[in-house]
């Protein structure tokens, strides 16, 4: 089924795809002080940071910082031994 047409794929110019490195990845690499060396490591660091921020947000939103005051046993004993005058008006 050859009709005499031949293609020479080895000498054809190929399209070169260059991906642009995102600014956040460049910033992480720059600020890491040499600890992070390529974009894959920077992406993993950003992913870990996002999970850390998510956990911190969950903690801050869903934990109640207004727990009731619980006196120590020493404070309870001291209050029990106090002589507090009865300030209620007499009942008639």
Explain what you see.
The structure is a single chain. Helices cover 45% and strands 0% of the residues. The protein has three helices and no strands. With 92 residues, the chain is an all-alpha fold. The longest helix is centred in the middle third of the chain and has 24 residues, at 39-62. The protein has helices spanning 23-31, 39-62, 73-80.
Task: Please estimate the helix content.
Answer: 40-55%
Distance between the termini: 121 Å
Q: List the helices and strands in order.
A: HHH
Mean pLDDT: 85
| Tally of alpha and pi helices | 3
Report the sheet-strand fraction: under 5%
- The beta-strand count equals 0
Shape: rod-shaped
Radius of gyration: 36 Å
Low-pLDDT runs:
none
Q: Based on helices, strands and strand pairing, what is the structural class?
A: mainly alpha
**Biggest sheet statistics:** none
Give a short synopsis of this structure:
The chain has 92 residues and is mainly alpha-helical.
Strand and helix map with partners:
Elements: H1 23-31, H2 39-62, H3 73-80
Helix pairs in contact: 1-2
Which terms summarize this structure?
0% strand; mainly alpha; 92 residues; 3 helices
């Amino acid at each position: 089924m050859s009709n005499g047409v031949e293609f020479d794929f080895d000498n054809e110019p190929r399209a070169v795809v260059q991906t642009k490195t995102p600014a956040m990845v460049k910033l992480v690499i720059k600020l890491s002080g040499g600890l992070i060396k390529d974009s894959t490591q920077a992406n993993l660091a950003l992913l870990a940071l996002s999970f850390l921020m998510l956990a911190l947000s969950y903690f801050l939103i869903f934990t109640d910082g207004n727990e009731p005051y619980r006196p120590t046993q020493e404070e309870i004993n001291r209050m029990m031994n106090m002589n507090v005058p009865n300030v209620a008006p007499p009942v008639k």
